[in-house]
Specification:
With 155 residues, this protein is an alpha+beta fold. It has 3 helices and 7 strands; from the N terminus they run H-E-E-E-H-E-E-E-E-H. It has a single domain, classed as Jelly Rolls, CATH 2.60.120. The radius of gyration is 15 Å and the shape is globular. It holds the Pfam family DUF3558.
């Protein structure tokens, strides 16, 4: 990859990858991120709407493997029955993927290849009122665009 992104500064603070304003715009209300540090696959952050309304953003910085996006491509059709190439995110390749297609339930994961061996992964879970009205893969992709812009801007 010609211009890899350095994710190291976010390993201990993955919730810094989205601003409060961005989270509010995506989820419709201000939600504080809950960091997931030293998880089995790496660090991440969750922004989840409470009160049964549903909806959330799940961000992961996987370190379980050093195969990057190529590792996800290799599992296409085997581990990942759902696989859709997405438009590049700020010049970085992206795919929507999952063990099954859960888009009709309002859920989709998008991985962005940020270097040859790393990805940023965003899962969008739509609220009950928006399932069937919005594409969760597009929502995850839109969130990924903002995350990559934040990384490039040094936020």
């Amino acid at each position: 990859m010609n211009d890899p992104l350095d994710l190291s500064r976010y390993q201990d603070n993955p919730c810094a990858l989205l601003t409060d304003a961005q989270v509010t715009r995506f989820l419709g209300e201000p939600i504080e991120g809950t960091p997931k540090l030293d998880g089995p696959t790496g660090d991440g952050c969750t922004w989840s709407v409470r009160g049964g309304v549903g909806g959330g953003i799940f961000l992961d910085l996987p370190t379980i493997s050093d195969t990057g996006l190529a590792g996800i491509y290799r599992q296409r059709g085997t581990s990942y029955q759902f696989f859709r190439e997405m438009p590049n995110v700020e010049g970085y390749p992206a795919v929507a993927y999952g063990h099954a297609d859960e888009t009709d339930q309002g859920e989709c994961a998008v991985a962005v290849g940020t270097s040859d061996d790393r990805t940023v992964e965003l899962t969008a879970v739509l609220s009950e009122r928006t399932v069937g009205k919005k594409d969760p893969c597009q929502a995850a992709h839109d969130t990924a665009v903002e995350v990559v812009q934040n990384i490039k801007g040094g936020r």
